[in-house]
Structure formats: structure tokens, C-alpha cells
Amino acid sequence: MNSVRRTIPARREATLRAIPLLLAFAMALTFGADCRAASSPAGEKAYPSRPIRLVVPYAPGGGTDILGRLVGAKLTESWGQPVIIDNRPGGGTVIGTELVARAPADGYTVLLGTGTHAVNATLYPKLPFDPIRDFEPVTLLASAPNVLVVHPSLPVHTLKQFIAFARTRPGQINYGSSGNGGTGHLAMEMLKQMAKIDLLHVPYKGGGPALNAVLTGEVSALINNMIATVPQIKGGRLRALGVTSSRRSPVVPEVPTLAESGLPGFDAIGWFGVFLPAGTPPSIVDKLNSELARIVRLPDVHRTLSGQGAEAIGNSKKEFAEIIQSDIAKWRTVLKAAHIVRD
Fold first, then answer.
1. CA 16/CA 19 separation, integer angstroms
2. Could you report how far apart the first and last alpha carbons of the chain are, in Å?
3. Structural domain harbouring 204
4. Which pLDDT does position 35 carry in this prediction?
């Protein structure tokens, strides 16, 4: 009996001694869980908490660069984190695009791509990335028709005159582009096919250098996006022969469409869209989508874009993905007909 009495207090005493250890263990578990939640990427509610790099796969001065700086400044304003424009031209956008494909999927490296992103899916038999699988489409920021312009020294004022002039000089008239496989390049290839003319292609590392080339007379013609080109048209430094959309642009209503000028059915719209590396958390993709859609609808941004011939869009990531797939099919047909393939 005495042994039983001694056992009960002993057990009580052991239990009391264990309580502080159990409390300490529980606190350690709770503290550890809180630390893990705070450091977990899934719990990163403060995105963005550091600067964002916006990769523009073209040289400075082109339409993509202009749009990137406009949107980047607005993102910096609203999120309080610097958006750094990183121009990475070359390789028909492959250099800059690969950089983003291989970047951490954390929302801090963003690609501002164009229709060339869809072109490259067919243009290159082998790429160091997959244009679909390795990216998360975020939103289509804007679309804009391209415009065919010539240096004022070229003795043509209409598309018909340009075609007639080129037919008497096969392979002698050169034209610039933002690079092999760019939408300006392929739009000119469409023109060549439909008009049955032969022009010499001179690729540059972006729309900016290509625009400078036609301004200086280094090349005679160019199909380029409206954003960068309209100021040169209105300033009389370039002569516009036609826009590549199915209807005239309200920015230069006096310039006819190529379709109404002798190439019925001609339609080649350029676009500008944002991508993130594949695997980026959906919460980050959605937050960036929502903010960019808001930005392109701001009155001053909308006014700037429309004043340069672009249409602000800011659609859903699903709608943007569908546009990319549609463009891949469209440009595959053009590339096949022109026998254009890059190593």
C-alpha cells in the first residue's frame, strides 16, 4: 500500500516536471511553422517586394521598347518597386526570350514579347526553349497594325507604284526589318508573295535600328509597327503607302490599307504581350494580369497608345493564350510558302 502511495505522487511530480518541456516543444513547433510560412514562396503575399526586371528582346527606340517604358513607369508608380527595362536584342528575340525562360519563376523577371514569339515556334526547328511550354501568358497589352513606309527619295507614292517600280528592279530594292522572323519581316514576305515581287531583306536587331535605317536611306522600305513609325510619318520624314490591317487607322486615316490598294485580304496585325516563366505561382500571374489590364485602360495610357495607332487590350491569360495559338497557325503558312527556316 505504501508503495502505491509513493508511486502516485512520484507520477504527479514527473508530470509537472514535463509540462515546461511540453510547452517549450509546442512553442518551438508553432514558431517553426510561422517561420516556414513567412519564408515560403506560396506565402509571399507582399509581391512585389523588390525590383522587377522587364526584358525587352529588342534594341531601344522601337515600339516594344516605348511601350515597355510606358507600362514599366506605371507599374513602378502603383507598386512602389522599380521596374527596370532590360533591352536584350538579337537572334530574332531568342536571346532575350531565353533569358526569361531560364529565370526563376518568381515574378521578378518578365518578358514583353510580340507576335514574333508565335512566329519563332515555327521559324526555328530547334530553340533553346519552348515558346508555349516554358512560359505563362499574362496578358495582351495592345495590338496595332503595321505600316508600309518608304524613304522619301524612292519615287513612289502609292502601293501600286511601289509594286510596279519593284517589278522592273527585281532584287534591287532593299527593305529593313526588326530581325529574321519578325512580324514586319513576315508581313513584307506576305506582300512579296501576293504582289509577286522580289525585294532584298536586311534584318536589324530591333525595330529601332530598322527604323533608323529607312530614315537615313540605308534601306528603301520598311513594314514597322505604328507606335514608333507614326511620328516619322507625320513629321514628313517617311512616306506611308499603306497600313496592314483590314481597316484604316484613325491615327492616319488618309493612309489606305494594303488590302484596298491592290492586295485584297492582306491583314497582319502586330501585338505586344507579357509573359512570365512557366511555373510562376498563379497568384502572381493573376496579380500582374490584373494590374497591367488596369494600367492600359488608364485614360493617359489609353490616349498615348491610341495616339500612336495602337489599341489597348488587357485581356485574360486564357484569351491571350488562344491568340498565340492562332498566330502560330497563321504564320506557319506564310513561312512554309516563303521557304523560311532558321537554324
1. 5
2. 94
3. 145-243
4. 38
Measure the CA–CA gap between 168 and 238, rounded to whole angstroms.
23
Q: Classify 176 as helix, strand or coil.
A: strand
The mean of the pLDDT values for the chain is 87
* Predicted local distance difference test score (pLDDT) of residue 309: 81
Copy the grid coordinates of residue 28: 518551438
Q: Are residues 65 and 153 in the same domain?
A: no
What one-letter code names the amino acid at 76?
T
C-alpha angle with apex 275: 271 to 276, nearest 5 degrees? 175
Examine the domain organization and report whether 157 and 139 are in the same domain: no
- Residue 68: count of CB within 10 angstroms of its CB: 25
Q: In this structure, which amino acid lies at residue 64?
A: T
Of 70, 53, 54, 58, the C-alpha closest to 310 is: 70
Per-residue model confidence as pLDDT tens digits over 55-78? 999 989 888 999 999 999 999 999
Please tell me whether residue 206 adopts helix, strand or coil conformation. coil
- The pLDDT tens digits for 82-122 are 999 999 998 889 999 999 999 999 999 999 999 989 999 98
pTM of the model: 0.74
Q: Which grid cell sits at 181?
A: 522572323
Q: For the domain that residue 192 is a member of, what is the CATH number?
A: 3.40.190.10
Q: Is 116 helix (H, G, I), strand (E, B) or coil?
A: helix
Q: What is the DSSP string of 239-278?
A: EEEEESSSS--TTSTTSPBTTTTT-TT---EEEEEEEEET
Which among 212, 221, 232, 234 has a CA at the least distance from the CA of 192? 221
Q: Is 31 exposed, middle or buried (0-12, 13-18, 19+ CB in 10 A)?
A: exposed
pLDDT tens profile 220-269: 999 998 888 999 999 999 999 999 998 999 889 999 999 999 999 998 88
Q: State the CATH number of the domain containing residue 299.
A: 3.40.190.150
